[in-house]
Amino acid sequence: MQQFVNRFGMIGALIFVLIQIVQVVFPIIPGGISCLAGVLLFGAVPGFFYNYIGICVGSCIAFGIARSLGRPVLYKMFPGKMIEKYLTWTELKGRFLKLFALAIFLPVAPDDFLCYLAGTTNMTWKQFVTVIFLGKPFSIALYSLGLTTLFQVIFHLV
């Protein structure tokens, strides 16, 4: 697959970044899987940067969509139980930004959903972009490199 992508040169990388953007805006596949693909297709460092660019841009688009459409978009895209669970975060005076930042930094939260949810709060664009651009590198690195290591271990055992 890497040879296939490499035949396209920079267009292959651009296509991958676009796929990352789309997978955030329309969360169909888990982000961890696409992060692994980025590292496997392009190598650790370029794959990390392509993942980072695509996920950050997609996160900003998700925030903007929710900012424009409001909470009804959450109910069209995500399970009600998930929405109700995280809506409680928005009810904690002054704590949503901190919880959001922590969740974005750690690679275990439903980041795509949280970007949409953040768009329905009073969080500013500046706050959102700061959290995404500073918080995403750690979680993307953990997903990308951690899953790559796991992938290599599994296939060396086979």
From TrEMBL:
Q: Gene Ontology terms, cellular component aspect?
A: plasma membrane
Give TM segment ranges.
12-43, 49-75, 139-157
VTT domain ranges (all copies): 29-144
Cell location: Cell membrane
Which membrane topology term applies here?
Multi-pass membrane protein
Q: Which Pfam families match?
A: VTT_dom
UniProt KW keywords:
Cell membrane, Membrane, Transmembrane, Transmembrane helix
Q: Which PROSITE patterns match?
A: PROKAR_LIPOPROTEIN
Instruction: Give the protein family.
Output: Belongs to the TVP38/TMEM64 family.
Known PANTHER family for this protein? GOLGI APPARATUS MEMBRANE PROTEIN TVP38-RELATED, TVP38_TMEM64 FAMILY MEMBRANE PROTEIN
What protein name applies here? TVP38/TMEM64 family membrane protein
